[in-house]
Design brief:
The protein has 5 helices and no strands. The chain is mainly alpha-helical and about 130 residues long. The chain folds into 2 domains: about 70 residues, no CATH class; about 55 residues. Helix 1 packs across helix 2 and helix 4 crosses helix 5. The chain is extended, with a radius of gyration of 20 Å.
Length: about 130
C-alpha cells in the first residue's frame, strides 16, 4: 500500500485491528479460565514476545516497505523460520534434522535466485 502514513500509524492500525479480531476468538480458545498466575519467566517471555514480535517488528516492517520493494521486504517471511532454526540450534542446542536442513537449503537457494540478477549486474559493472 502506498499510503502517505508514517510507519507508526500503519503499525498501530494493523495491531489494533488484529488485536480486536483476536478478541473475537477468545471464547473458542479458552474452555476454562486459568486458575494460576504464570511464573516470572513466563510473564517476561510473554512481554518480550509482545513488544519485539509485534510492536517493533511491525514498525520495522512498515519502515522497510517505504524504502524497499514490497517483494524484497516479503522475504522476511521466508527467512524468519530459517533464523529460528539457526538460533534454536545455536542457543538451545536443538538438533536440525535432514528434512529441516533440506528445507533451509531450498529457502536459501530461492533467496539467491531472487537476488542473482542484481548481484550479477553489480559484478559486471565493477568488472568493466
Amino acid at each position: 500500500i502506498n499510503a502517505p502514513l508514517a510507519p507508526m500509524s500503519q503499525a498501530t492500525g494493523s495491531l489494533l485491528v488484529s488485536a480486536l479480531a483476536s478478541l473475537l476468538l477468545v471464547p473458542f480458545i479458552y474452555e476454562h479460565i486459568p486458575t494460576a498466575i504464570p511464573g516470572t519467566k513466563t510473564i517476561i517471555g510473554f512481554l518480550f514476545t509482545l513488544i519485539m514480535s509485534s510492536i517493533v517488528a511491525m514498525l520495522c516492517y512498515f519502515w522497510l516497505i517505504k524504502r524497499l520493494n514490497a517483494s524484497t521486504v516479503s522475504l522476511s517471511n521466508v527467512i524468519t523460520p530459517v533464523l529460528a532454526l539457526i538460533l534454536g540450534a545455536t542457543l538451545n542446542n536443538e538438533q536440525i534434522g535432514s528434512h529441516a536442513f533440506a528445507g533451509v537449503s531450498v529457502v536459501m537457494f530461492g533467496i539467491v535466485l531472487y537476488f542473482w540478477k542484481d548481484w550479477h549486474s553489480q559484478y559486471r559493472a565493477k568488472k568493466y
